[in-house]
Specification:
Number of helices: 19
Largest sheet: 5 strands, parallel
Oligomer: single chain
Strand order of the largest sheet: 2-1-3-6-7
Helix content: 40-55%
Length: 459
């Protein structure tokens, strides 16, 4: 992987030429493409460390092609350059994996400095290669999962706090395990604390331990989980469930790496690495005074946000094949094409965990057969598929309608999506958080659609 080659994708010939001179002044080779398709193709077939990508190109929007470029064989860092920068575009760019977002009005020195920093980052990135990771059961090859695995590799190479967020069943425990297993602490204890199962009366004793006689029923001294994690990793699963009073005490432990057991007179030390996980919105909890802001800052030095399964549909078949091949049966059953299509269209509210449970039931139901069909699937998935089929038939045009009057599928989809987005933004009065809640879209996907359909959500 040669980081000395830089690709510029920009139809503004004068600006592209200025960039080319600046890049070559830094003793780097530069290739310029004036169309988006040409640039994406160059990235797919060439070896580039850095790509400067313009937003408004004659054949499309650069922000919509970021993932394709990042997913190319050389996995370059993408720096977005735009003549008309805006906050939403910047957020969308970074959410989609861009390294930076720069306006064209920036000075040559700023552009040169950004290029230098991106090259330094890329050089450092090689020291924690995703390909060398022990995945600990994490399955998937989508860009979203690769980005999360890269953060795992970065986290494993350091000792800073990590916050893993994501919906239930998305694999937070596996990612915490992978960070520990690939770190310098892998030979030491990996202690998991299920904060959701701790009662408020026993949480301090469970975490900090207690001395004999500290409270009724304390017949002997007990070493807390924090001490058990000494020299290893402490995972606070569902940390959003931790009581406020304990959050304050735990913050002190993070600062001093020492604590006092319940009923104890002496401080006990514990050198642990902290990983926290939750499916809750901690920022929203802070606004409701249910979570400490200072604790959140300490937790999320590195923040790994796991995507729901519905946002990485391309991983479903990989997960299915991996799981079926891991079963003890000598010849695992195959999934019919109908089942795979049902899986691709199902929203998976329980994420990967629900998919595995569905496969377990299908395996049990299909015992003695070689092919899993839709009849072997859980009832809820079959109901969803049946409703989709009925709704699809109802929405079809009457047979008497002339085919010539129908718009193309892309035109129909574009107009209806635009109509939906306009109504969504209007009904939510421009509130993005409310629109996310109503639509069920991720923030980056919503911003991408708004930009594509040129809809301004600001009041």
């Amino acid at each position: 992987m040669h980081s000395s080659r830089v690709l510029v994708i920009d139809d503004d010939s004068s600006f592209a030429l200025m960039l080319k001179f600046m890049i070559e002044d830094n003793h780097l080779e530069c290739v310029v493409c004036s169309t988006l398709d040409e640039g994406v193709q160059a990235a797919a077939t060439g070896d580039f460390g850095i790509v400067f990508l313009d937003v408004k190109m004659p054949d499309g929007n650069g922000l919509e092609r970021i993932s394709e470029i990042i997913n190319s064989p050389s996995s370059p860092e993408v720096i977005i350059i735009t003549g008309a920068g805006d906050a939403d575009g910047a957020e969308l760019a970074i959410s989609n994996g861009a390294w930076d977002y720069i306006e064209k009005t920036s000075t040559t020195n700023r552009l040169s400095l950004t290029l230098t920093k991106a090259l330094e980052y890329r050089k450092h990135r090689k020291t924690y290669s995703v390909h060398q990771l022990d995945r600990c059961g994490i399955v998937g090859e989508s860009q979203a999962i690769k980005a999360c695995l890269e953060q795992v590799a970065m986290a494993a190479s350091s000792d800073v706090g990590v916050l893993i967020t994501g919906p239930t069943g998305s694999g937070k425990e596996l990612f915490a395990r992978a960070i520990h297993q690939n770190s310098a602490r892998s030979s030491q204890n990996h202690v998991i604390v299920d904060c959701a199962s701790l009662t408020e009366t026993l949480v301090e004793s469970t975490l900090f331990g207690h001395e004999k006689g500290a409270y009724t029923g304390a017949d002997k001294s007990s070493e807390g989980l924090i001490r058990q994690a000494h020299k290893g990793t402490l995972v606070l699963d569902e940390i959003g469930e931790m009581p406020l009073s304990v959050q304050k005490s735990f913050l002190r432990v993070l600062d001093s790496k020492s604590f006092r057991p319940v009923g104890g007179a002496k401080e006990v030390e514990s050198d642990f690495r902290l990983i926290a996980s939750t499916n809750r919105d901690l920022d929203q909890m802070i606004n409701r005074q249910l979570f400490r802001k200072d604790l959140l800052y300490r937790l999320k030095t590195i923040h790994i946000e796991l995507p729901p399964l519905k946002e990485r549909i391309e991983d479903i078949e990989i997960i299915v094949d991996d799981y079926l091949n891991s079963m003890s049966r000598k010849t695992p059953p195959e999934l019919s094409s109908e089942v795979l299509e049902i899986f691709r269209n199902y929203p998976w509210p329980g994420n990967v965990r629900e998919l595995i449970h569905a496969l377990d039931l299908a395996m049990a139901s299909s015992a003695g057969t070689t092919v899993i069909t839709s009849h072997h699937l859980p009832k809820m998935i079959r109901i969803h598929a049946a409703r989709n089929s009925v709704n699809g038939n109802r929405s079809a045009e009457p047979e008497s309608e002339s085919v010539e009057k129908l718009p193309t599928y892309n035109d129909f989809k574009f107009r209806n999506t635009q109509n939906y987005l306009e109504k969504l933004i209007k009904s939510c009065r421009g509130s993005i958080p409310e629109a996310l809640k109503v639509s069920g879209l991720s923030r980056s996907r919503l911003y991408a659609l708004l930009q594509k359909h040129d809809i301004n959500h600001r009041k």
